[in-house]
Structure formats: structure tokens, C-alpha cells
Amino acid sequence: MLLFRKKILPVIILIIAGVFIHGHSIHAQSIKKLPDDPLSGRIVFEKKQCVRCHTIGGVFGEGMRDPTGERIGKSFGSLTARIWNHFPAMEIEFMKGEIAWPEFTEKELVELTAFIYFIPYLGDTGDLDNGKTVFASKGCFNCHQVGGKGGAIGPRLDKLRKNVSPLYLAVSMWNHMPQMDKIWKERGIKKPVLNGKDINDLASYIKDASRGANHERMYLSPGNPNSGEKLFSDKKCFVCHSVRGKSKGKSKSIESMNLKISVTAIASQMWRYHPVDIIEAGGVEWPVLSGQEMADLFSYIYFIRFIDPPGNVSEGQEIFKAKKCLACHSVRGVGGIVGPDLSKAQYGNLSSMAAALLNHAPFIKDITLEEGIDWPYFTGEELGHIFTYLKSNQKIN
């Protein structure tokens, strides 16, 4: 019995583990934790000298290239791959400026990429004229007054706080949806459909027409995605929506929807596709949100696609070979000896592997030149597969 425990049982466990590891994708988290403040990466952006070549919206940074466009990256992995792929060109600029290549901790890399990813969420300034048009075309005048014109069923919107934010307007609209829904049905009014930045434009129009005191201001943080994850559960959003298969909601999963859009565009989608009847029919009380809660919830929803899906061991192994990583590195003793055996590396997440990869970029560049190897370019998906492959071969210290 003792022999079975000491020698045979461990072998059986390893065989079973091997079957599951090599036959299926491993659900390995791409990053350890999202930043509580998605804008904290602006400090890293400046500290690591990104400001010398890049700008954020033409406002922050000395350079001309804005890395926040839609093409730049759809997840942590793709953003990291973008940085890696541009290393040869960036190295030239760094050498011209006599700047050392920056090294990243795992936390710094996550903060930097999250910051770049988050900028489109903040959206553009509202269009006052379009807001006035939307207010009229959507029939808001039927119930609300602005500038002394309109109905008296709902509150006068020109008495709102002078510095009302689009998010404040979105919160007010969402929380009063059940009351508005009742009035629409009684009067045979079809629920108005909002698109894109309509809420942003409406807020600009209402703010311009507001007679509220100037000192009444409402400030909100950009939203904490980690707090938003808890709210997603507390407000029972999972009853309708799943996230990475974690619930059995019948509506679309959050990751399947294109929600890498501005905060007000998310608010418009939420307004448009959440009928009161359907939510209450599911046994869920209409979720009332504070301004900060909505900011946190939207931030969480926005960042769901930032987290890369699990990679595949077999694909990772093939990519590792195809990119000639074995010319320098070995895995469990098989491969080159220039670099370390990566089965001994303790990568807890894709982000820890990515930080190590970027930090060694100058050394890797020198080696590829010496050996006549082309610079290996990666997609975000390929990095995810490689991480999963290395994780499956990781030796436990």
C-alpha cells in the first residue's frame, strides 16, 4: 500500500493530468488583476517615455502617433503583441534619443495596456445641436420641459444640475425606466430608441438649457472594473447575461457583444435592449444604480474583452516551434541552450510572461541578428497559445 502511494499513485495523477492538459484548452487567466483605476496607466505611459513618440488624443504626450485607435488592440494580448512587433522600429527611436529600453513589472504592463485600451471608453464631447434634435425626435418633449417648453408629466430637465454629466443622465434614465415604461404603455407611446452617442448629445443640450446653480457639480471616477464585477453579480445581471460561460443567461453573453465603445454608447445599448417586462418576468427586481455603481459596472463590462480567452496547448507548441523559439530556449530539456529552459519559468499569467518577453527584447534582438533569424512577430492569440503551452509544461518548484 505504501509503495502504491509513493510511486504508482503520483504516476497515475500525472497521466490523468497530461490527458486533460494536452487534450483541451486550459482556462488560464491572462492577467492577475485589472487596475482599480483604469487611468492609472497614464503614469506608466509618461514614466516609460512613451510620451516622446506617442500622444493620447493629441492632448497628452509630445509625439504624433496615437495608440488608442480601434486597430491598435482588442485585448491585453493583442496590445502586448503590438508593442513587441514594433520593437525593432522603436529601438531605433530609443537609440536616437539615447534612451534605454524600458523594463516593465507585470503590474506596470497591465496598467499601461489597460490605459490605452480604456481611452475610447471616455468618448467624445457631446453635440449640443444634435442633442436638441434627438430630444425633439425621440418625443422627450411629451413628458419633459426644457427651456419652458414641453410636457409636465416628468420632471423639468432644465432644472437639472448645471454640470450634469452624460453618465448622470444615463443613471437617471435607467433608474426611472419602470415609471416611464408604465406611462408609455398607458399613452400608447413606443419606447424611444437611442443609438451611439445620443445620451452624450442629450446631456450637452440639457446642460446648456439648465437653470440649475453652477455650484451643483457631480464628479465620478472613471469606474472600477473590479467593483463592477461584484455589482454584476449583486444586481443579478447574470440572470440574463453570461460572462465566459459562468452563468446560463439566455441573452447574449457579454463577451459576444461589441462593447468596446464609449460609456454613453454602452448606456444607449443598455437602455435599448433591456425591456422592463423581460427583466421583471425573470423574477429580478429592476436594478437601481447609483452614479458610481453604473460607472463601475460599465467599466467591468467594457474590460471583459480585454481579458484574453484561454489558449490551446497544441497550437502553442506548434507556434513555439514555427517562431523558432527553440533555437534559443528549451522546454523540459529539448531545444537550445542560449536562453533558459522555459519549463522552469514560473509564469502565473500571460501578463507575467509578456512582461518577461518585453524586458528581454533588446537581448533577443541581438541574438536573432547574430543567428540570422528573422524577428518573430506575434498576434495576441499566438501569445496566449504559447503561454498556455508553457504553463502546461511548467515544473513545480
Provide structural commentary.
This protein has helices at 2-23, 41-47, 76-85, 87-96, 106-122, 128-137, 166-175, 177-187, 198-209, 225-234, 263-272, 276-281, 291-303, 313-322, 350-359, 361-371, 380-392; strands spanning 145-146, 149-150, 330-331, 334-335. A hairpin with a 2-residue loop joins strand 1 and strand 2 (149-150). The model is unreliable at 1-28 (pLDDT under 50). Helices cover 48% and strands 2% of the residues. The protein is built from 17 helices and 4 strands. Strands 1-2 form a two-stranded antiparallel sheet. The chain has 2 domains: 38-122 and 311-392, no CATH class; 124-305, no CATH class. The chain is mainly alpha-helical.
Helix content: 40-55%
- Percentage of residues in strands: under 5%
Shape: elongated
Gap between N and C termini, in Å?
27 Å
Q: List unreliable stretches of 5+ residues.
A: 1-28
Order of helices and strands: HHHHHHEEHHHHHHHHEEHHH
Oligomer: single chain
| Sheet/helix structural class | mainly alpha
Instruction: Give the count of structural domains.
Output: 2
Mean pLDDT over all positions:
84
Task: Enumerate how many helices there are, as a single number.
Answer: 17
Order of neighbouring strands in the sheet with most strands: 1-2
How many extended strands?
A: 4
Largest sheet: 2 strands, antiparallel
